[in-house]
Write a structure and sequence with these properties.
single chain; 624 residues; alpha/beta; 9-stranded mixed β-sheet; 6-stranded mixed β-sheet; 16 helices; 37 strands; disordered N terminus
């Protein structure tokens, strides 16, 4: 088994793409039914086996005639013909047209024997069986002759054609029941790490377990790229288990993707398996995120090892692996959807690696596209949906300046900036407001950070508590806050003083939260009553430093028995069925960026806030 791996010589992104281009991914050919052919790529040429249409048919509603009988006819000098019958689409003609006669015919119906033209009904008049024709026709007028659309033996579609609804319709017209197409590359997906649990299973947070994100996000990305994902059982960090799962995947698939266990740590053993059971072609790329990428071959299958963090894994897949899968499936190179925008803030960078910076888009008040970094760390799964694309930052770039023009490569062509971009205090009442908007984006950064970012001019709106922040107030409301305790309140907690004086363990909120501000204000008031110091009182609270980020996190800590009391809202206690000890009410404000008040998305938000009483009607502890 290899010794611990070191990242000594990182490959450039260009070298990594060259190695991936050389991997063998040849899935072959398969036949699919026509109703499954949409989006597939033809593997062979399709020739017409029959004429389309297969008969001479009427192009208009009117009368089938012999063109010679109408020569010289006009509005002032019409000719009269005898109607000998009717012909409808889908039925075989039971009449023929002779000299001086005609037959009524519907669009698409077969032209009867003897007729060689069709006069439209608008150029005729009829009384009984007598039809007056007021125009002259030439042979073929009003008729689509057999084979006019497609003639038997014609080359209809060639290999490499992407089948869309148009091509499928043409094949249906030819009577084609199934077609040969490029097979989708079969892509085995293996997530590694002892800490992973598949969604639906029970996660033990105390054991450091997390849900497996990569298997599902990468599988969806494989489908988008034209591949067929196959999820394999989760593999831990044990060498023998990893070897077995990777070998099974290599036997069944054209490409094996693993995520995690690719770094230089002693427990990261994937590269050891690849080295011993195949060929390791590359280990480590000078790119952020995604430095520990692996490339190789195993058991006849191509192999790519993706980083373990979801943002890193998906970013590297999109940038390096997806184009290879599309090529193997015969799909055309995906047209790069790129928008140009100006950096909304200054972003420093100096790590000497190419950076694929996740970025969000927001429109200014005058419709200009602004770009801001979305970098909550590679382990933050919310970055997957809070970013709109990536900005490629060269390795020698030290910073991107505010106002600098950058190109954002969108995650998909249909990505659009949010209708309104809000930041600040996470609040259950404002969540309901967001539900009424068309395409909002909200970053729950806390009241203080929301006020700061609003000052910097990036978001359209900030949600803040108390009197924090400056902007145009669109609405305000109050929420009741206090302590949540287990049912029955076994420790008889009655207020903040019990946190200081009694043996009560607290689960607190992070310092960025407006609720934490409310608690600190209450402690300051208590300290003033006792002629003491707020900080000294806080030090007496067991768990004051035990910070949690989520609105419900302290309450859930109480539910799980990890704390005796939690800082929370009455609405949270009501939602989770916990007992609530009220302490006070806190004002919440929605503050608009003064330069964006007339922006359509902000106006839509203002309209929703006009119905605030209705929005908050059944939310415990709230008042508009």
């Amino acid at each position: 088994m290899s010794d611990r791996k070191q990242f000594r010589d990182l490959a450039s992104p260009e070298q990594a793409r060259e190695v991936i281009a050389g991997l063998d991914l040849s899935p072959g050919v398969e036949r699919v039914d026509l109703d499954d052919a949409d989006g597939r790529v033809l593997a062979d040429r399709i020739d017409a086996r029959l004429d389309v249409p297969g008969f001479d048919r009427a192009k208009v509603d009117g009368y089938a005639v012999r063109a010679a009988d109408t020569f010289g006819a006009s509005e002032t000098d019409p000719v009269d013909l005898d109607c000998v019958g009717d012909i409808h689409a889908g039925s075989e003609p039971d009449v023929s047209v002779d000299d001086g006669t005609c037959a009524e015919i519907s669009t698409g119906a077969p032209v009867p024997p003897g007729a060689d033209a069709v006069v439209m009904v608008e150029r005729t008049a009829r009384e009984g069986d007598a039809v007056t024709v007021r125009t002259s026709l030439a042979p073929g007028d009003g008729v689509m002759v057999a084979g006019a659309d497609v003639a038997a033996g014609d080359r209809v579609l060639g290999p490499g054609t992407l089948l869309t609804s148009r091509e499928v319709g043409l094949l249906a017209a030819l009577g084609v029941e199934s077609v040969p197409v490029r097979a989708k590359p079969k892509v085995g997906i293996v997530s590694t790490g002892d800490e992973l649990v598949r969604p639906g299973g029970e996660v033990r947070h105390r054991a450091g377990q997390i849900y497996d994100v990569n298997s599902y996000s990468i599988a969806a990305a494989v489908r988008d790229a034209g591949g067929e994902p196959v999820l394999y059982p989760h593999a831990g960090d044990d060498y023998e288990e990893l070897e077995r799962v990777l070998r099974d995947a290599a036997d069944d698939c054209d490409l094996v993707l693993s995520s995690g266990s690719t770094s230089a740590s002693a427990v990261d053993v994937v590269y050891q398996v690849v080295e011993e059971r195949g060929e390791l072609l590359l280990h480590g790329v000078s790119v952020k995120p995604g430095k520990p990428m692996l490339l190789g071959e195993m058991g006849g299958a191509a192999y790519v090892g993706l980083p373990g963090y979801p943002v890193s894994a998906l970013t590297i897949f999109r940038a390096f692996v997806a184009p290879k899968i599309r090529d193997a499936a015969g799909l055309p190179e995906q047209r790069s959807a790129t928008v140009e925008g100006r950096m909304a803030v200054r972003e420093r960078y100096g790590e000497g690696r190419t950076r694929l910076m996740p970025a969000g888009l927001v429109e200014s008040g005058d419709g200009e596209t602004l770009v801001y970094p979305v970098d909550k760390g590679s382990g933050a799964t919310t970055s997957l949906v809070e970013a709109d694309g990536t900005v490629t930052v060269d390795a020698d770039t030290e910073y991107l300046d505010e106002g600098e023009t950058v190109d954002v490569e969108l995650f998909s062509p249909d990505v659009r900036p949010p209708s309104v971009f809000a930041v600040g205090e996470r609040d259950p009442g404002f969540d309901r407001v967001l539900d009424r908007l068309s395409n909002p984006r909200f970053l729950g950064l806390g009241s203080r950070e929301g006020a700061r970012r609003l000052r910097n001019g990036v978001p359209d709106l900030a949600v803040t508590t108390d009197n924090r922040g400056e902007g145009e107030e669109l609405a305000s409301w109050t929420r009741e806050w206090g302590l949540v305790v287990p049912a029955g309140n076994p420790l008889a907690v009655s207020g903040i003083s019990d946190l200081v004086d009694a043996d009560v363990t607290l689960s607190n909120r992070t310092g960025a939260s407006g609720l934490r501000d409310a608690l600190d204000d209450a402690l300051a008031a208590l300290a003033e009553e006792r002629d003491g110091d707020r900080r000294a009182l806080a030090e007496n609270i067991d768990g004051y430093e035990r910070e949690t980020k989520g609105t419900e996190s302290p309450a859930r800590a109480v539910l799980e028995g990890d704390a005796d009391a939690g800082l929370a809202l009455r609405a949270t206690a009501d939602r989770l069925g916990l007992e609530f000890v009220p302490v006070g009410e806190q004002p919440v404000r929605a503050l608009a960026n003064p330069e964006r008040v007339e922006k359509p998305g902000v106006q839509e938000l203002a309209g929703a806030l006009d119905d605030l009483e209705d929005v908050l009607a059944d939310l415990a502890g709230y008042e508009a």
